[in-house]
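Homework help board

Subject: predicted structure for assignment chain

Our instructor gave us this sequence and asked us to write out the predicted structure in token form, then describe one feature. I got the tokens but I'm not sure how to describe them. Can anyone check?
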Amino acid sequence: MYAGAPLSAPGDEKVGTLCIIDDKSREFTRQQLSLLRDLADCVERELFHHESQQTLIKIRDNEQHLQAVLHNVIDGIITINHTGIIQEANPATETIFGYQLEEMLGQNIKMLMPSDIARQHDGYLQNFQTGGKAKIIGIGREVMGKRKSGETFPLDLAISGIRRGNKNFFVGLVRDITERKKSEKALVKAKEEAEQSTRMKSEFINMMSHELRTPLTVILGYLPLLNNPQKLPPAEVICEIIEDIKVSGNHLLHLINDLLDLSKIEADKMELHREWIDINDIISGILANVQQKATGKNIELINQVTSCQLYVDPVRIRQIIYNLLGNALKFTEQGSVKISSSLQSGMLAISVQDTGMGIKEIDLPTIFDKFHQIDSSSKRKASGTGLGLAITQKLVEIHGGTIEVNSRFGEGTEFIVTLPIKEQ
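My token output:
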């Protein structure tokens, strides 16, 4: 004997049968069959209740998972209604903008925007909702945000539109890209500096080629006049030739020495041979050597250096002073060049001040760069490698000192070298 009532799950899906089985044949009354159906209905209700419970558990699990994601994601997530009022925001939004959640809820999203963007925001919303062209919504772009402190900062913004019933809602995803922008800016700057360095090196090589070729051309040009004993020029002409060759040779030697000094400094192989010297003796000797050049240009040399004992390399100190005085005389057409000294907290400050052409403000930050020459154009009259100040700075620093420059274009320049008095 068998009797059964079909079982259906929610949605009218057939899942089985509630049945009665016996080994004896019998007939069921209408009441018994009705009771079987009632039992089947009870089973279906239990099945529905169990499935509902499982569904609720899954919903709760999904909600907890979603909340965990929203609370731990590094991007800010903001929900606003059709008028721009903030409905929801996650913790990352608080971190990004500096507001607590309760300070944002119920407020217009414009509080998180600079004033110029805030003024356009309502128009963006209206434009989107009336079927116009979207400016931000559904597109995504970089915009500026405003923190609670008033600070503005760059952020990536992506907005999606959502329809609930007959109302529009919008979900915005924001990411603070301040650090990314800094990195991009640093990368661009590094690229520009690398390109500038390459250009300066190229200019330096071209300039050095010209500077080295010029004295060699003078020397080699005179040789044919002197290599035939039967056709020598008059004695006075020979003296002029020898003087020109001497000047060109000294200039060539100076260029080569500059390159060798820079090479040693760059390789950290520049050695100092220190001894106690009186700085006034060193400078007085240098001034005596350059006096003729100053007189020839009608420039007054002023010595206001006081006697002071320094433990330094006298050869390199002479090189430092020669470079500074040489530049002062080279770029001064009239007036004076003054060198003075003063004591400053265990340091001796040596100033070389001129009334020359001065240095443009734009050139001051790169004045000590090894591949940089002030006015490297074809109009530049003063010769040289342009390495003098770079070498001078390195020599001063190796001695434990500092060098700085003050200048006004068209009025003059002052270099100040500060050296330690005590042994280093």
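Reply (TA_rk): Your tokens look well-formed. For the description, you could write something like this. The longest helix spans residues 178-226. That's the kind of observation they're looking for.
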